[in-house]
Amino acid sequence: MMASDKINENGASKFLQASNMFILLVLILATLVSFNCSASLEGGKGVRLEVLNKLKSSGIIGQHAVQVELGSRNSKLSLVLDTAIDLTWIQCQPCKGCSEQLPIFNYSSSETYSDLPCSSGYCSALAAVKGEESGPECRNSTSPCEYQLGYSYAPGRLGKDQLSFAAGGGGAEAAVLLNDFVFWCGNASGYLSGGGVEAGAMGLGKGGNLSILYQQAAASNESRGLEKCFSYCLTTVNGAGGHLTFGCQQEAAAVMNYTNFYKTPDEPHAMWYTTKVSAISVNGRKLNYTITERERTSNTTRNVTRPLFAFDTTVETATPISLLPPTIYKALNDSFTHLMQGYPRAPPATSDPLLFDNCYNLKTLSAADVRRITPSISFTFGDNTVVDLDPSAVMYPVNPDNSQVCLAFTPNRRDEDIPVIGALQQQTLGVFFDIPRGRMGFKHHDCT
User: Taking every annotated instance into account, which residue ranges of this chain make up the domain Peptidase A1 (predicted)?
Assistant: First the structure.
């Protein structure tokens, strides 16, 4: 659920989602939820951003956005929540391929905007985000920090400006979060679709000081309950609420079921929230799955099939649906198909055989009946953190009349590609990220 390039030697989630899910992105009308600030601080509980509950048309299923105000003119922008990147990026004028229906941030008209020079520590940190050894395109130390970045961030410059969260109802004033917010000012659309309503992406990764989490913690000296923690609750398309909350001192933190972050030996980006999945269960029965790997000896190389007891996965908000290793997806798909064998099949929702390929015609059933007959799926993280998915996170109604309701998972291209728990599977869950303690928590939540 959707780093600057996000591709490593094994392949990575954002690039895979962009290439595999193109048809899906233009097929489905989905929710883009705008979060608005109705209160700043409540007794040290952190900054909670309440949902204004606007539903907007988007070509992307399962993406959620926070509405912010940027610059001296308080330009209102919707930024996709992205837990897999550190640096927030925003479409800036001039912007190639950007949506004309949106206000594109004009940094030259903001009295509080300034470029960051090549001598800035943030500019140096950007090289690590880019994942390359090459530095910025600098003529001298006072030149603006500019890159011809590819894929996610698009060409542009590093700048800073005043960031606040848009005011909620009742005439409340916007709550300023950062006076010197560092972000990427991009001159192209990046990985966002040109016809959407989003103006950029808010980087909620844990990799370093470019992340909004580290910036707001440093600005407040961690004295306002804004340590490097945050939580969110992502609603369904018809959901009535949702929230994003900054701060470690949250009431929700005490009731979460926690699992630890897990750092793999070859993890390419420390910004990702990676944990270990030890089991997947369908209707209470754990799946049995194996994985085939190449094993080399001194004389030969052969394929070896062995049981797979656990696998690493990232938890993302900008990747629409979960990506599983092909062997694990097959076990899940086979079990799901067996349990649904009494219901009429529907054709795949896309021409891509990897996307929404297991579909059913349930138009004779009410929405409540669809929820009732949906097989349950649960994930076990770490040793014993069990998370039951909401039925809406298991089957997705491609057609509103339920004539095409599909299993809401998709396989990676290869077993070694990085699995992802996407936004759709996190619906109705409260998810808490506790960076100081190296853990994340899950809890079913009504998102109000």
Answer: 64-443
DSSP E strands, 213-327: 229-233, 243-246, 257-260, 274-282, 285-286, 290-296, 301-307, 311-315, 322-324
Give the residue among 325, 361, 318 at the shortest CA–CA distance from 343: 361
Q: Which among 434, 87, 33 has a CA at the least distance from the CA of 273?
A: 434
pTM above 0.85, yes or no: no
Torsion of CA 47, 51, 56, 59, to 10 degrees: 60
Indicate if 255-444 has the same CATH topology as 13-250. yes
Q: Which range has the worst mean pLDDT, 26-35, 163-172, 234-243, 256-265? A: 26-35
Give the helix ranges, DSSP H, for 173-313: 212-220
> Do 136 and 145 touch, CB atoms closer than 8 A?
yes
Least confident of 114-123, 271-280, 348-357, 370-379: 348-357
Closest CA to 417 of 331, 327, 303: 327
pLDDT digits (tens, 9 = 90+) for 316-342: 988 889 999 998 999 999 999 999 999
Q: What are phi and psi of 403, to 5 degrees?
A: -75, -10
Fold classification of 255-444 (topology level): Cathepsin D, subunit A; domain 1 (2.40.70)
User: CATH fold of 13-250, please?
Assistant: Cathepsin D, subunit A; domain 1 (2.40.70)
318-322-323-325 Cα dihedral, nearest 10 degrees? 150
3-state secondary structure of 134: coil
Which sequence spans correspond to the domains of the chain?
13-250, 255-444
pLDDT digits (tens, 9 = 90+) for 199-254: 888 999 988 889 998 888 887 665 454 578 898 888 776 665 678 888 887 776 77
